[in-house]
Amino acid sequence: MRHAKAEQGGRTDFERELTDRGRADAAEAGAWLAGRGFAPQHALVSAAARTRATWEALAAGGGWELEPDYDRGLYVAEPATAVDLIGLVDDDVRTLVVIGHNPTMAYLAQLLGDGEGDPELESQLLAGFPTSATAVFEYDGAWSDLAEGSARLVGYHVGRG
């Protein structure tokens, strides 16, 4: 997931907060995920203020009580680094949510897909990855083996509250 709509300015980019719309959009995305039966067992979230706030609103919208793993490295991660961070997740975790920043999250979503997902979803994903965009993948393997083209896109949604 890409973080929700954030303020244009802040003391630093890392400290930018969500707008009211961003909080509403993230909560709506959480409700959408929960409505599809998605309940994360682990949350890997960039440590930036806007991604932390996105997680809080997403979790509230989904009705999840889960302590996230805030990772400062995800803030500046390239797609390959994001895959490496995901690879460190315990294999007992079957459902994972990752919240980060563009362009990394858009590239990551495009790289992970095996191209065998629903063509309409694939088309929507390729058309853009705006704030609050959420791509849902199925993956059957060890997180450490996650690689390009190894997951199937089964959902795509842009939260708009």
Automatic annotation (TrEMBL):
Region (Disordered): 1-20
Gene3D superfamilies xrefs: Phosphoglycerate mutase-like
Name of the protein in question: Histidine phosphatase family protein
Organism encoding this protein: Nocardioides aquiterrae
